[in-house]
Write a structure and sequence with these properties.
heterodimer, A: FAD/NAD(P)-binding domain, globular, B: alpha/beta, two-stranded antiparallel ribbon
Chain lengths: 592, 353
């Protein structure tokens, strides 16, 4: 029985938990009065976006939404908005050693060398820890087919832009700015044309903040350059210069007069706000509450009933009982790629669904390398006057052609330097450096040196039969088969990875301005460590080659939808959050 | 018995009985003999399948037609969900006037159609792996202790005619049956889920028929385990129609202690459960006394029961054990459905459901 009031622990009073969440008994009791129309399985990044957007866009208040999250409610913010908390991402492991870093678990098994990291089993999920990089997929990374043209039209017609706004990724130079940023940006802009396999900046789409016909002053503002800059570049060069800006999901400025900035994006504040809005609207009456968020409710299977050649989810099996889905109800899978796929594989294993073999195929992750260098500060003209802690975050996109196919990669470049030793650099770094897992590298900086981390992220081939998610013979604690995850790079993948690393070397040389530099570290991350799993519930127009349709609904299940990068037919090299959020917002509007 | 709806007896077989009828070839299905024994006990209340020339139970097969791998066609005998997705409509289960329908599930017919030594070996290895993975020393000790008496008990003629015919038709020996079914069910996730989903779907569809008032689950041997596993997965609205769960010769105790089974019972429906066991049956066990009492044989030591620890919720599986004696000149200790005494008890329970 859920406590009706906030409970008190040895240290805290759980006001946030009680105000945001509901218990199983409360949800079931209220469903007896008014059933839930949309059940979102998973309260991570994409589940939260779907739930929040559906709540707010439902002007008629016709829909009741239930979010089921397997983990607890732990943090209300991205970890980097809570500096020095020390709650980081654990290292990859081969088998699940039990909960790590409070919330991380590994529900699947794999033969990936070095293992994988797993899931953050909590409200907000991995979005509480993510790096924040939000580049958009290029048109050439989203060929149609396999991408359904209807989905691409919608994404490019506004959903990507809206998602960038929601993430805080549409504004340039507001989070990271200053002399170091401007200096390194100019160096990359000048060096990029000569670096093999980098896509010419003119071919790339404009930075999200750039309107169709940008005003010259606006371009200068976005670049953080004074409007009276001497010998300013032409408009085209200014637009291309902006394309080197990092698309980071950080909102540092107040979006509206009198409002607070949300800082680094995570899904937790979204669902918190939506849950409170629903509570306020209901005046405390659970049955009138249009959104309920129930943590620690573990969905084990979806029960599908068949009518002719179409199935319908009639109930959801959970660790706390069976939850009926009303005849007109919809279910949204939002548990991240591998668990979404496992749920579909386990639930539909025996049903004879025509495209069952498609589920779990087309598995893709990203290949990732990290090159960290240390450059004497004296190499950079214009930094002499820089004071305090300096940071930079920049972006480049590449394409490597081989074996008759073009594969993409990009660089996430972060840099930091000190001017003077009397700063609390350590604490600030934790907030300034976008990727939490590269913060350590920056401890190598000194008053006289700038540290630059060049992280290469490269795509893998789609439709690689050697990369799959299947059901293992092992079972989890709820008796459900675990997912077995395997990834085998093709020769083309490895060639792309090599090309990406070679380009990273050239980028490093360009950023070092021709002087000698130290290589602090170089490594290739394990294949399962990027969180960028995708492709296994791919959208498509044909059920013979895809799992879900252009509306992200399972082809053969009339009320089951999916979210997240599992939907991507091809993943490209772009980090999946932006496209995933765009698809989630689109799904929410479709469900209304 | 009120006549405002059918009491539907759902019979679920164990290993070696997975035979559907072939009325054209005059071959009986596995539950025909049981149905014949129930006729005089239940009288005209017991319905006959209107679609079979000589009546008998309604057979619902997990694979129909045989070798088709099509589950839906078999389930369609029960009916299909209507457009509202809340009611199942289908052909009559009995002739007019009857108040008891008898539905026999055939859930595992397709494993034995083709002899495949390699697949058998793989299944055997997986079964052994499953035992090694899940078994506990305590469970192994308990199983040996329990079953020594049964193993050394006097041998009786093999089985009822239906059992012997079915085993012969399947070409199954006890060891291969054990490997195929128990090993497969325990260690092969997809196979286990296929069987469970079929049984769950059948029960839910029957309960969603407007002409069905109460469901009696009549299960035997390994079929008791499957229904036990499915029980928490019955949808709440349909679970309200579960009136009685009868287990005969259940190996559930061995599953719990050898194979770490029974930990998915938190959502147990409100259903009366009676377990029939023969003290000489090496497969079946009584369930209510806790493990230690079973070993010492002292039933007065008390205890809270086998499944209580797995069910933290208020509603727990509560089972009542009832002793029967199956053995005579023509029956072995595991042949419950061939035992007139058991059939009389079964008929009494069906009437009172």
């Amino acid at each position: 029985m859920t406590s009706p009031v906030a409970e008190t622990t040895d240290f805290t009073r759980d006001v946030l938990g009680r105000y945001i969440c509901n218990g199983f008994d409360e949800a079931v009791a209220s469903a007896g009065v008014r059933r839930f129309d949309t059940i979102v399985v998973g309260g991570g990044a994409f589940g939260a976006v779907v739930a929040q957007h559906l709540l707010y866009r439902d002007q008629q208040r016709a829909h009741r939404i239930l979010v089921l999250e397997a983990g607890p409610f732990v943090l209300p913010e991205h970890v980097q908005n809570l500096p020095m908390l020390g709650l980081n991402v654990p290292d990859p492991v081969l088998t699940d050693p039990g909960p790590r870093c409070e919330v991380w678990g590994l529900p699947w098994i794999s033969d990936i060398p070095g293992g994988t990291i797993g899931l953050a089993c909590c409200l907000g999920g991995r979005s509480i820890y993510w790096g924040g990089w939000s580049p958009r997929l290029l048109t050439e990374e989203t060929p149609s087919p396999p991408w359904p043209s209807a989905a691409l039209v919608d994404l490019n017609g506004g959903y990507i832009k809206d998602a960038a706004d929601q993430l805080g990724a549409s504004a340039a130079n507001e989070f990271v700015f200053g002399p170091l940023q401007n200096t390194l940006r100019q160096l990359l802009f000048e060096a990029a044309p000569a670096i093999a396999d980098l896509i010419p900046l003119a071919e790339l789409p404009d930075y999200p903040a750039v309107p169709v016909n940008p005003d010259r002053d606006l371009l200068l503002d976005l670049l953080g350059l004074p409007r009276d800059t001497p010998n300013p570049p032409g408009d085209g060069d200014l637009r291309n210069l902006l394309k080197v800006e990092a698309p980071l999901a950080v909102q540092s400025h107040a979006p509206l007069p009198g409002s607070f900035a949300m800082n680094k994006f995570s899904a937790a504040p979204l669902i918190l706000e939506a849950a409170r809005a629903a509570w306020a609207e209901s005046v405390g009456n659970d049955a009138d509450r249009r959104l309920m968020v129930v943590p620690r409710w573990h969905v084990t299977r979806l029960d599908a009933i068949r009518s002719n050649n179409l199935w319908h989810i009639g109930a959801i099996e959970t660790n706390q009982g069976v939850l009926p889905v009303p005849p007109s109800g919809r279910v949204v899978l939002a548990m991240a790629t591998i668990e979404n796929t496992r749920m579909a594989l386990a639930s539909f294993a025996s049903l004879g669904m025509p495209n069952y073999g498609q589920i779990g195929s087309n598995f893709q992750v990203h290949m990732r390398s990290n090159l960290t260098i240390r450059v004497p500060k004296a190499a950079f003209q214009g930094l002499a006057a820089a004071v305090g802690l300096q940071a930079a975050a920049l972006f480049l996109k590449g394409r490597h052609s081989g074996n008759g196919a073009a594969r993409h990669f990009h660089f996430q470049i972060t840099a930091s330097g000190l001017q003077g030793l009397n700063t609390d650099a350590e604490a600030k770094l934790y907030k300034l450096i976008p990727d939490v897992d590269t913060v350590d590298a920056f401890r190598a900086m000194t008053e006289d040196h700038v540290v630059i981390a060049i992280r290469g992220v490269a795509e893998m081939d789609a439709r690689n039969p050697s990369s799959t998610i299947r059901l293992a013979e092992d079972r989890d604690e709820f008796g459900v088969p675990r997912a077995f995850v395997t990834v085998k790079p093709t020769s083309g993948d490895l060639a792309t990875w090599d090309a990406c690393d070679a380009a990273a070397n050239e980028v490093a040389k360009a950023l070092a301005c021709g002087v000698d530099f130290d290589v602090v570290a170089f490594n290739r991350d394990g294949l399962g460590t990027t969180y960028h799993e995708g492709g296994t519930l791919a959208m498509g127009d044909s059920p013979e080659t895809s799992v879900t349709n252009a509306d992200t609904r399972f082809h053969f299940v009339d009320n089951l939808f999916a979210t997240g990068p599992a939907l991507f037919p091809t993943t490209g090299s772009a980090n999946p959050m932006l496209t995933g959020v765009a698809l989630a917002r689109r799904l929410a509007e479709h469900l209304i | 018995m009120e006549n405002d709806g059918l009491t539907c007896v759902v019979t679920v077989h164990g290993i070696g009985l997975q035979r559907p009828p072939d009325d054209k070839a005059n071959v009986a299905g596995y539950a025909d003999e049981l149905h014949t024994k129930l006729r005089p006990l239940l009288g005209p209340s017991l319905g006959e399948d209107p679609q079979r020339p000589n009546g008998g139970p309604v057979y619902v097969q997990s694979e129909y037609p045989s070798l088709s791998k099509d589950t839906e066609k078999g389930l369609e005998r029960i009916g299909n969900w209507d457009a509202s997705r809340s009611v199942v409509k289908g052909a009559a289960l009995t002739q007019a006037g009857a108040s008891i329908a008898h539905v026999a599930l055939v859930y595992s017919g397709d494993e034995e159609h083709v002899a495949d030594p390699l697949a058998g070996a793989v299944i055997a290895l997986l079964g052994i792996q499953g035992v090694l993975h899940y078994a506990t020393p305590e469970g192994l000790t308990e199983a040996f202790g329990n079953n020594l008496r049964g193993l050394f008990h006097r041998k009786t003629p093999a089985a009822s005619k239906a059992q012997a015919d079915a085993a012969k038709a399947a070409g199954a020996q006890p060891l291969t049956s054990l490997v195929d079914h128990v090993g497969g069910y325990v260690a092969r996730n997809v196979l286990r889920e296929r069987v469970r989903v079929f049984v769950r779907d059948a029960v839910i569809r029957l309960a969603a028929r407007e002409d069905v008032k109460t469901i009696v689950l009549n299960t035997h041997s390994n079929g008791t385990v499957i229904v036990f596993d499915v029980m928490p997965r019955i949808w709440p609205e349909q679970a309200r129609k579960l009136g009685l769960y009868l287990t005969a010769g259940t190996p559930l105790r061995k599953y719990v202690h050898l194979l770490s089974w029974g930990n998915e019972v938190a959502n147990w429906p409100d259903v009366k459960w009676i377990n029939y066991y023969d003290i000489d049956d090496p497969v079946g066990d009584q369930l209510q006394p806790p493990l230690d009492v079973r070993i010492t044989g002292d039933a007065d030591m008390g205890g809270s029961g086998l499944f209580v620890a797995y069910a933290p919720a208020d509603r727990k599986p509560t089972v009542v054990d009832q002793l029967v004696s199956n053995v005579d000149a023509n029956r072995d200790s595991h042949d419950y459905w061939g035992n007139p005494e058991f059939c009389k008890l079964l008929a009494d329970q069906i009437r009172s459901a």
